[in-house]
Automatic annotation (TrEMBL):
This is Ionotropic glutamate receptor C-terminal domain-containing protein. The chain crosses the membrane at residues 23-49. GO terms for cellular component: membrane. One of its GO terms (molecular function) is ligand-gated monoatomic ion channel activity. Residues 9-66 form the Ionotropic glutamate receptor C-terminal domain. It comes from the Eukaryota. InterPro entries: Iontro_rcpt_C (IPR001320). Belongs to the glutamate-gated ion channel (TC 1.A.10.1) family. Keywords: Membrane, Transmembrane, Transmembrane helix. The keyword ATP-binding does not apply. It comes from Petrolisthes cinctipes.
Length: 85
């Protein structure tokens, strides 16, 4: 924060002369830093964690397998759909 305050108050050739412009530029710099940090963290997590293999491709695969428990919630759209069939 001290270096940001120094950049805002000292002024550079690319910083605006008015306080409103300096506030806008400093807000933009802080937001860019936050977004860049979040993006790099998400990218690192995606590249380091192994992907989860989902062995189910269709509804028939779900019904045929016995390793993963599943159920249809009573009163849901799928429950009524399978009752009609």
């Amino acid at each position: 924060m001290v270096s940001l305050h120094g950049h805002i108050t000292a002024g550079c050739h690319w910083l605006p002369k008015k306080d409103g412009g300096r506030l806008l530029v400093s807000t933009w710099l802080v937001a860019s830093l936050v977004f860049m940090t979040c993006y790099s963290g998400i990218l690192t997590a995606m590249l380091t964690l192994p992907r989860v293999n989902i062995p189910i491709d269709s509804l028939s695969d779900l019904v045929a397998q016995s390793r993963l428990p599943w159920r249809i919630e009573a009163g849901s759209m799928m429950f009524h759909y399978f009752q009609v069939l």
